[in-house]
Design a protein that fits this description.
The chain is mainly alpha-helical. It folds into 3 domains: 168 residues, no CATH class; 36 residues; 51 residues, no CATH class. The chain contains 12 helices and 4 strands. Strands 1-2 form a two-stranded antiparallel sheet.
Length: 314
Amino acid sequence: MDQTHARALEALQPFIALATSNSATSPRFISNIITNATSAPNTYVFAELLGTTTIQALGSPDTPVEYQAYLKLLEIFAWGTWQDYQETPNLPELSADQALKLRLLSLLSLAATTKPLTYQSLINALSLSTAAELEALVTTAIYANLISARLSPASNPPTVNVTSVASLRDAPPHSLPWMVTILTEWESRCGQVITGLEAEIVRVKTNAQKRHAKDQVYQEQVAGAVQRRQAQAGPGDGGSGADGRVGKSGMGRGAVRSTTMGLGRNKREADDFDEDDGFESDNGDNAFRMDIDEGAGLSRAGNRQTKRVVGRRT
């Protein structure tokens, strides 16, 4: 409940108390309650007053005709409009305060049902004479927090742009079945939307599970392929050489190169070769000698430096 409706309901409470008191016995007294309630400031809702037993008693056939019309007048203030008052015969005359209030309440109903809300349509519906009277009425409704609106007199046609309307109009009893039908249809549509959302959630979850299972199978296949490749590239197919290349015989390029040189690759291997080389003989003048340089093989610069001395010992 908004503040405007709460204030209107609070302003109506004294009149409800009078209508439910023991003194509310005569039709004249009850009709005065209706007149005062519809004339008082800030009273814009009347369903609670209309529902009291004493007010409803005015509709009894035993009630004089001049007082029966007050019940219809209160119904128009509760959910009717200015046009309803104009079209209903034998209603009590309205005071200036009552006429202003009924026009304000009618403006709320028109703002909620009529689009666009032009100056001319409002002037006709509220029985006003000039645009100035209409602008004064709209301004009063704005300051009373009944509507939020903006006047556009320079537009073509001039219009009243209403953005919000206070919930102060009561629903007539004959509209309740229609409202129940609308709410039932709305509930059915909401149920269909919820069912659709639940089905969509199930579909999304199912697709996510399928994608997850597919990803797992793919990962397992990749892992198996990697293991098979590692098994095929194991030690049995030859090691790597000095420069990282693998030979069929298990020897790298560096190993092949060292064997083709014929001699050791360092000084110690050369000394070992010189100690027992089998090329020196001590058989007299015809002895044969071969000297081999210790640096035979590869030098640091990578050049072959070999020295051979062949001759007879003197």
